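Moderator note: this is an archived Q&A kept for reference. The question asked for a predicted structure of one protein chain; the sequence and the answer are reproduced below.
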Amino acid sequence: MAHINLKHLRYFWAVAAHGSIAKAAHVLHLTPQTISGQLRELEDQIGAKLFAKTGRNLVLTDTGRLVFGYADDMFRISDELQDVLAGRTTGGGLTLNVGIAMVVPKLLTYRLLAPVLAMSEPVRLVCIERPLVDLLADLSVHKLDLVLTDSPLNPALNIRAYNHALGESPVTFYAAKGLAERWREGFPRSLEAAPMLMPADSSSLRRALDFWFERIGVRPRTLAEIDDRALMKTFGEAGVGIFTAPQTVEEDVLAKYAVEVVGRTDEVTERFYAISAERRIKHPAVSVITEAARNGLFR
């Protein structure tokens, strides 16, 4: 058999990955007729059918599944290489596109990303903050190199990405001076009916806090649910309510905001993850982030 035409193979891969000739044609900016013709040529070259029709749908044959397995690995590795090379600017530096879930504290984000700017090779850092579902969509089409979040990727999501645990930290409770003095003594029992600024229901921290409060039999008053952790601290600094942040950035919180510690607990922890499209991290700036987090920030 002659060498397989890689262009034909990529068209086949696109059809199999997207589920139809029409969708693949839209992505590849080609006509469906062009792709159909290329698929027939590939089948003639291989000597076997790659798709079978079931109603109006195309399904892979046994040969098609075999070919797709190899093609999927080959083209995904090729795309990863292009992404890494595309990350290098014309001046020879790197670009790192990072998506940041709104639930990740900004002070912690800075501590995670600061080592990138200290690399010997210049790095252009691009930070984007959006809801996690939007960031994962961008990651899946290689618009982002990395997503920072407080929970691992849900296996139910049809996204080919990989979790890299960065570390975990117990939490500290903070409030403006007047509130801190009122609710500090007897912590955590003192938080009964205390005014709380809580993360949204969808966050891992909110679930952990709700479970902990229920377990110790304390019912605080939830005054507001706030996804953006910087906004939550601003409300807390204004004396609206008590909020939490990881103990690993406690000194930073106290230095930046006019708040005091109400109490600390090791029974509630926040975990943080880097999610990438790579199983093995190849981008040098991403490697710096993960190593600094594991060896320094969360040590």
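Archived answer notes: The beta strands are 51-54, 57-60, 94-101, 123-130, 146-149, 162-175, 195-198, 221-225, 243-246, 260-276.
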